[in-house]
Write a structure and sequence with these properties.
Keywords: DNA-binding, Transcription, Transcription regulation. This is DNA-binding transcriptional regulator YhcF (GntR family). InterPro entries: Tscrpt_reg_HTH_GntR, WH-like_DNA-bd_sf, WH_DNA-bd_sf. The protein is mainly alpha-helical. It has five helices and two strands. Strands 1-2 form a two-stranded antiparallel sheet. Helix 1 (about 15-25) crosses helix 3. It is globular.
């Protein structure tokens, strides 16, 4: 399993890795119970800091997509139903982060950005 980081992307490396894991869980390339590469190994392979990989893994664990098993490693969560819900929540969170970054760059206040979201949800 290969992951890659595009240094020219506007997305931070942890977000790129996080999205690649989500995509692979979503398309079945990574199945429940599959073990992900150890943080240090993947960081070395990608040429990024170990903390960057650890952050992506932590966020995916918080979203319920991955589970850390201590020294045994990090695995795709085994519960498929929870995994689908978690995958949707994680994808929504990633979209929200991109939206927040975009609205900040446009100079919108948080209140204005939320108003735009409310309008879109009601449409």
């Amino acid at each position: 399993m290969r992951f890659s980081i595009d240094p020219l992307s506007g997305e931070p490396p942890f977000a790129q890795l996080r999205q690649q894991v989500l995509d692979r869980v979503g398309d079945g390339t990574l199945a429940p119970g599959d073990r992900l590469p150890p943080v240090r190994n993947l960081a070395t392979e990608l040429g990024i800091a170990a903390n960057t990989v650890a952050r992506a893994y932590r966020e995916l664990e918080a979203d319920g997509v991955l589970e850390g098993r201590g020294r045994t490693g990090t695995f795709v969560r085994a519960t498929v139903t929870d995994g689908r819900i978690a995958l949707a929540a994680a994808s929504a969170r990633a979209a929200a982060e991109r939206y927040a970054e975009t609205t900040r760059s446009l100079g919108l206040s948080p209140e204005q950005a939320l108003a735009v979201v409310r309008q879109a949800l009601e449409a």
